[in-house]
Design goal:
Chains A, B: It comes from Solimonas fluminis. Chains A, B: This is NUDIX hydrolase. The structure is a homodimer. By secondary structure, chain A is α+β, with helices and mostly antiparallel strands. Chain A folds into two domains: about 35 residues, Ubiquitin Ligase Nedd4, Chain: W, CATH 2.20.70.10; about 140 residues, Nucleoside Triphosphate Pyrophosphohydrolase (Alpha-Beta Complex), CATH 3.90.79.10. Chain A has three helices and eleven strands; from the N terminus they run E-E-E-E-E-E-E-H-E-E-E-H-E-H. The first copy, chain A, is elongated, with a radius of gyration of 20 Å. Chains A and B meet through helix 1, strand 8 and strand 11 of A and helix 1, strand 8 and strand 11 of B. The structure holds zinc ion (ZN) (2 copies). The site of one zinc ion has 8 residues of chain A, from loops.
Chain lengths: ~190, ~190
């Protein structure tokens, strides 16, 4: 970030008056460009038979690994709205957002995940530019070793545990350390 | 947002390839400047005697009204870290962050509130540039009609209800409609 997005002049990194952290400050127009953590919204879509809708990533990072629909929250939407939008965009699926089941801080990438469970409406879903494959899976079919991100793995665990005991609640988790990138041999269970 | 913060050239508002919303796109270097919702972190600091630490706002908006410590989440922190930081900055207080007690979507300002309860450490606290007055208050002393924001009001209600029943959980709420700005006569209970 080198230029002011209001006036186009160069910005400096310095601590503004009444602040305590360095910000990108424009010496020409005075604009301050803040960088903020991003919210990721996601949803675990449950079909009538109890299976959940999973997507195989067709994009980097973690191309080829599995997730439920999730992505950056957009301006003007709630976490539930955003989660349902992601299901449409990534899986062609209409999903009614229900309880917030997980809030996961990921400070090493400055992200907060807000994960809902949802009810899959109808039977239509399918691949998209972001998902090479979209499938309904029972708990036993979830590819636990091929899940794209730790946040997704933990959210799925919360979902299935809560479903088993018959009560959903919002789980909180801080993932404070960046996981070591999984090695291919580990991901495949050592079969390579 | 008129200029690219990477190269300083003018940006256009258009839908990038593989996207579905208008973004600020630089025709010169290709950079896309996304606008994202912001996370607000806050904390209800509880003293040993059960009173909670409240701050009278010394800044706009809602100058003179009451809140607990809360503010924009910063890069690289968890919601709990950030909530504790706000307590130091706004109330000179050391607070240990505990459970997440509220997640509140406020889509009309593109914000998500993440509110923790916390344990006030020691007995030191006091006014700051942001808070003209900082006070410990029992539930009966909370100025419910002079609370700065609906998110703060709801979070306090959740906190006291959960404390009464002896179990804290994470409450979710969507505030979908902008409240009508309170009139002075209403705030003071009609005494003016
Ligand atoms: Zn400027
Ligand atoms: Zn550019």
């Amino acid at each position: 970030m080198k230029f002011c997005n209001v006036c186009g002049h160069g910005v400096d990194l310095r601590v503004p008056p009444d602040d305590h952290l360095e910000r990108h400050v424009c010496g020409h127009c005075g604009n301050i460009q803040y960088l903020n953590p991003k919210a990721i919204v996601g949803i675990v879509p449950e079909a009538e038979d109890g299976r959940v809708l999973m997507c195989r990533r067709n994009i980097e990072p973690r191309l080829g690994l599995w997730t439920f629909p999730a992505g950056f929250m957009e301006l003007g939407e709630t976490s539930g709205d955003g989660a349902a939008r992601e299901a449409r965009e990534e899986a062609q699926a209409e999903v009614e957002p229900l309880e917030l089941i997980a809030v996961i801080n990921v400070p090493y990438v400055s992200q907060v995940y807000l994960i809902h469970r949802g009810r899959l409406r109808g039977t239509h879903f399918g691949p998209t530019a972001e998902s090479s494959e979209v499938r309904l899976m029972s708990e036993g079919e979830i590819p636990w070793d091929d899940i794209a991100f730790p946040t997704i793995w933990h959210s799925l665990k919360f979902f299935f545990e809560d479903r088993r005991r018959g009560r959903y609640e919002t789980h909180s988790l801080d993932l404070k350390y960046r996981p070591r990138p999984p090695q291919r041999a580990e991901i495949s269970g050592g079969n390579i």
